[in-house]
Amino acid sequence: MTDNTQHGNPSHKLESDVRSYVRSYPIVIKKAKGAIITDENGNEHLDFLAGAGALNYGHNNPHIKKHLIEYLESDGIIHSLDMATQAKNHFMDVFGDLILKPRGLEYKIQFPGPTGTNAVEAALKLARKATGRTGVISFTNGYHGMTLGALAVTGNKYHRENIPGIPYGDVTFMPYCRYTNTLDNSIEFLRIKLEDDSSGLDLPAAIILETIQGEGGINQATTQWLQDLRALCDEFGVLMIIDDIQAGCGRTGDFFSFEESGIVPDIVTLSKSIGAYGLPMALVLMKPEIDVWKPAEHNGTFRGHNLAFVAAAKALEHYWANDDFSKSIKYKSALLKEKLTAFADNFPQAEFSVRGRGLMYGLESLADRTLAGQIQKKCFENSLIIETCGSNGQVLKFLMPLTITEIELNKGLSIIRNACEEILENKTEQKRARKT
Prior knowledge:
Blueprint: H1 21-24, E1 29-33, E2 36-39, E3 44-47, H2 50-53, H3 62-73, H4 86-100, E4 108-110, H5 116-131, E5 136-139, H6 148-152, H7 157-160, E6 171-174, H8 186-195, E7 206-209, E8 212-213, E9 219-220, H9 223-236, E10 239-243, E11 267-270, E12 283-286, H10 306-319, H11 324-346, E13 352-357, E14 360-365, H12 371-381, E15 384-385, E16 387-389, E17 395-398, H13 406-435
Parallel strand pairs: 3-15, 5-6, 5-7, 7-10, 10-11
Antiparallel strand pairs: 1-2, 2-3, 4-12, 8-9, 11-12, 13-14, 14-17, 16-17
C-alpha cells in the first residue's frame, strides 16, 4: 500500500508501528454509512475498500442493525464459547436452507476463532489429520493469513520474511493458473510431479487456493483450470481447500466464488463478510466424512460470537432468499468492467490490464508498476479510499461494498479516471521537458 503520511499522522502515540492502513489513509474516522466514511472533521470519503472485503453489505447496514439492537436490548447472550444458543442454531438453519441446500452442497460447519487466518489454520490441521499426511501444496501469489500455518502457504516474500529464522511447515508452491506465458499447463506440470517418485514432491494432504487471488493481484483462475485441479485431487486422493475468505459471500456475484466453475471443494474457509456487519466471524465448511475432529482439538474462546450469528443470519435472509441481490452485483460488475475497459482504451500509454469478476477487479499498468500507488494516493486526496495489491502494490484493487449505488460507483470511477488523466498528463509533460 502507498504511504500517504504527508497528509498528517492521526495515529495514537501508544499504537505500535505495525499499523498499516492508517498510513495510507491518515484520517480519524467518526462514522460510516453504506459506502460513505465520515472523518472527525465532517469530510466524507467514498469507500472502495470495504474493510478489505469484510463489509460486503456496507457500513451500518440498516436491514441488519435493527436486529442487532433488538438482540442487545433483549439481553441475548453475546459470548457462549461453543455452547448451543438460539442465535447460533438459527444461523446454521438459515445457512443450510439458503446457501447449502440450493447449491446441492453437503457440508458440516466448524466455528474456529473468528478470523480468516484461524479458519485456514483449522482447515490445514483438519486436512492433515484426515489424510494422515503432512504436505500441502499452495500456489504462487497466494495469500492465506499471517499466523504461522497460514503464512506457510502464503507466497508473499515481505510477509514470509518478517520473522527471520522461523521454519515454515511442509509446503510446496506450484504455479497458479497463467502464472507465466511460457507454462502452458500448470496442472499437467503438477501431475508429472505427483507421478514421478524422484520429483521430490511427496503425496500431499491438501491443495489450498483462492479462485481469485485477492492480495496477490486479482489473479483469476479459469474454469477449466479449476476443474482440472479438482479432477487431479480426486485422482490422487488429495483434499481441495478453497479459501473463500475474500472472494466469497457474494463478492464475485455468486455466494461462493467457485460456483461458476461447478467444482465442489472438500473444505471451504469463510470469514470477513460472513459476519455481515463487520463483526468477527469465521467458518470452516467440510464434507461430513472429513469431520474427524475430536472434542476441542481446535478450539478458541471466541467461537461463539452471537452478535455475529444474528447479523449473519439476517444478512442471508435479506439478501440471499432469492437471486435478486446476485443479479444486482452482476449488473454493477458489468458497469465496472465496461468503465475499466474504457480506461485501458483511453490511456494506451499505461498499458492497463483489467481483470476480475463480480465487484472484485484489478487495474494494473504493465508500463509502470508504480502507477497504481500514485493513483491510489491521488484518489485519497479527492476523498476516495481504494487499495492496491499484488506482489509490489502494482495493482489498483476494486473492492467496494456490494450494496453500493450506481451513482456512488460512477462517482468513484470518475475520481479514478481524473486521477489517471492528471498523473499521465504530468508524466507526459515531464518527458517533454526532459527532451527540451
